[in-house]
Amino acid sequence: MTHALLNTLEVPEAFQPLLLETPQATRVDSLGDVIAVVLHRLRFSRDPLELESDQVSMVLMRNLLISIEEAPGQTSFDSLLEWLQNKKPAAAGEDLDDLLHYMVDNLLDGIFPMLEQMANRLDDLEEAALRDPKPRILGKAYQLRNNLRRIRQQLWPLRHQTLLFLRQNQPVMGPEGLQGFREMAQNVEQIFESCEILRHQCDAVTEAHMASTGNRMNQVMKTLTIVSTIFAPLTFIAGIYGMNFKNMPELDWHYGYLAALLLMGMIATIQTIWLRKRGWFEDWTATRR
Predict the structure, then answer these.
(1) Quick one: CA torsion of 10, 14, 15, 16, rounded to 10 degrees?
(2) Residue 271, φ and ψ in degrees, nearest 5
(3) Is 110 within a domain?
(4) What is the dihedral of CA 239, 242, 247, 248, to 10 degrees?
(5) Pairing, β 51-61 against β 27-31
């Protein structure tokens, strides 16, 4: 039935799969008086960690603009529909190229707030990695990196195809519509630059996590070294007096046991004070507020 409707509207057979089949790669294509644009509406389901994508296909012909969405929602070009319903006089054929540009621009502009949310989330993850590094922080950073990769993959074909499209002489595109596609090319470049910055921010989260984990491991090794340093001479003294030689004068002392304990306690105290003055007891992994 849908194919029959498209045939009635005289949509070329070559462009009908772009409207009806999913998923399709992002593209800007033209043939004669027909222009086809396939984009994806990107959005977060709950937070920046879960990215969803719905295909939006558009075909522009003389006096006809068709758009089909994979999963239309409540916000599917609501402002455009309201404007068309209230526009007086009604939109004419020469306005269709501007409407196509508006729809494409609306889909691209929705990516910038998403990138801002991801940037804020990465700031929080970097701070958490410095304060309390946990494995799930790296998992979230990798998931955000994967979302950035998906956004880049969705828009990558537009970088080349838009430039080719602008070099062609499109009879159905007016000057304002062509200017809109030039702005679209600039928006795509800005999105790519923002994605590259955020990718480096993902690397910063990973580096902060590794640095904090390394500091904590160094703190553990330092603690073990302090304990070993303090107990090494005590173990040496205990080993000497644990030998079973008969000619050991200290064994006959009435206060020999107490003297040995006092000696070991004094050595441990002196070592503790000396190590503390040298800064060995300072905790470099303490939570910073």
Answers:
(1) 70
(2) -65, -40
(3) yes
(4) 70
(5) unpaired
**Predicted structure pTM score:** 0.71
Among residues 165, 195, 216, which one has the least CA distance to residue 34? 165
Residue 187 is part of which domain span?
A: 2-214
Written as tens digits, the pLDDT of the chain (289 aa) is 577 777 777 677 777 777 777 788 888 887 777 888 888 888 887 777 788 888 888 888 877 888 888 776 655 676 766 666 666 555 555 567 778 878 888 888 888 888 998 999 999 988 888 888 888 888 888 888 998 998 888 888 887 887 777 777 666 677 777 777 788 888 888 888 899 999 999 998 888 888 888 888 888 888 888 888 888 888 888 888 888 777 777 777 888 888 888 988 998 899 888 888 877 777 666 554 4
Indicate whether 236 belongs to any domain. no
In a domain, 205, yes or no: yes
- Alpha carbon separation from 140 to 44, 48, 188, 283 (Å, rounded): 14, 10, 26, 28
Structure tokens at 119: 């940037």
CA dihedral 146, 104, 76, 113 (to 10 degrees): 50
Structurally, the chain folds into a number of domains equal to 1
Residue 147 belongs to domain with CATH number = 1.20.58.340
Does 95 fall in a domain?
A: yes
Pairwise CA distance, residues 125 & 133, whole Å:
9
Peptide bond into 249 cis (omega under 30): no
